[in-house]
Structures are given as C-alpha cells and as structure tokens.
Specification:
Blueprint (H helix, E strand, L loop, with lengths): L1 H24 L13 H8 L3 H30 L11 H9 L1
Helix pairs in contact: 1-3
Length: about 100
C-alpha cells in the first residue's frame, strides 16, 4: 500500500502543477490579463479553438485531481488503525485501574 500511496501522491503533485499551468494559460473574461501568462502563445500554437481545448483539459485535470485526492484519502483511512486513548494505555495501567 505504501508504494501505491507514493505513486498516487506523485501523480497528484504532477496533476496540480499541470492544472496551475493550464489555468494560467486561459484567457480571462474581464481585463484580458491572461495574455501576460501566455494565453496569446497558446492561441498561436493551438489555433483559434485554444480556449475550448484548454477548458476541456482543465475539466479533466480537475476531475483527475478530485479522484486522486479521494483515492489517497481512502488508502490513508484503510492504513491507519482505529484506536482509542484507552486501548493505547499499557496493560499494567489498565489492570491497576480496575483493581482500585
């Protein structure tokens, strides 16, 4: 399980970086400040439909991000044993408390 957790964590980091880059490449609807971060270059390379492609990639990367977070949460939940404060006490202390 540790190897799977490590691989999914690395994929999550890569996905997060790609998601940040893709979001910064998109054009904004307001002040067109997206050109500063390379949306003009994306339109030049990817053509006129670049905003549609970038939007679809953003949706897919966002969905993958959510899936990886839920998968990592599930794996972590399964690997951690559920315990309470009382069960963590040494056996000698528990028997002394019962005798009193």
């Amino acid at each position: 399980m540790d190897i799977l957790f490590t691989v999914l964590s690395i994929l999550l980091i890569i996905d997060a970086v790609l998601l940040i880059i893709i979001v910064l490449m998109q054009k904004t609807k307001g002040a067109e400040i997206g050109a500063i971060f390379g949306s003009g270059a994306a339109a030049a390379v990817l053509g006129a439909g670049a905003s549609n492609i970038l939007t679809k990639i953003t949706y897919w990367l966002g969905g993958l991000f959510m899936f990886l977070v839920f998968a990592l949460s599930f794996i972590h939940h399964k690997s951690v044993k559920s315990s309470s404060v009382i069960s963590d006490l040494p056996e000698t202390q528990q028997t002394q408390q019962k005798q009193k």
